[in-house]
Amino acid sequence: MERVDAYPRPPRLEQCQRHIRVEALGMVLCESHSSLRVLETFHPPTYYLPPEAVNQALLEPAAGSSTCEWKGVARYFDLVGSASRLERAVWCYPNPTAAFAALAGWFALYPALMDGCWVDGQLVLPQPGGFYGGWITPDLIGPFKGDPLHPELI
Length: 154
Hints:
Blueprint lengths: L1 E2 L8 E5 L3 E5 L2 E6 L2 E5 L6 E3 L10 E10 L3 E9 L4 E8 L14 E3 L6 E4 L2 E2 L1 E2 L8 E2 L3 E2 L13
Parallel strand pairs: 1-15
Antiparallel strand pairs: 2-5, 3-4, 3-11, 5-6, 7-8, 8-9, 9-10, 11-12, 13-14
């Protein structure tokens, strides 16, 4: 079990070999045994997926960007299928800060927008709140930032 209140601030980046599978718009977006996790106090991990494991044919660059004080400037992508589009559902850091250089070109996503995200075959719950991209797995102990039951963390 991992307690998210024990995760560090500033966040830590770690390699992960767990089996990751993401389905969106009725298709497999990613399947890999290699990912990077960002661990930050009170946040469930955000998983970053290697570019070679992501079906990039489903991604179209989206307008806008955001800035993370730790990682730098993120660029967004729409996830596009034959009949639907998920706007700004995926992001990456093309030129992250030095501390997060390993994230360059890797993709993260909002689990709440996907058909499903799995870690080692277990369905992930999305981090509460539309702003966050954390993946809640059964081995995590909250509370989690964004949870309306814990307004002190919002």
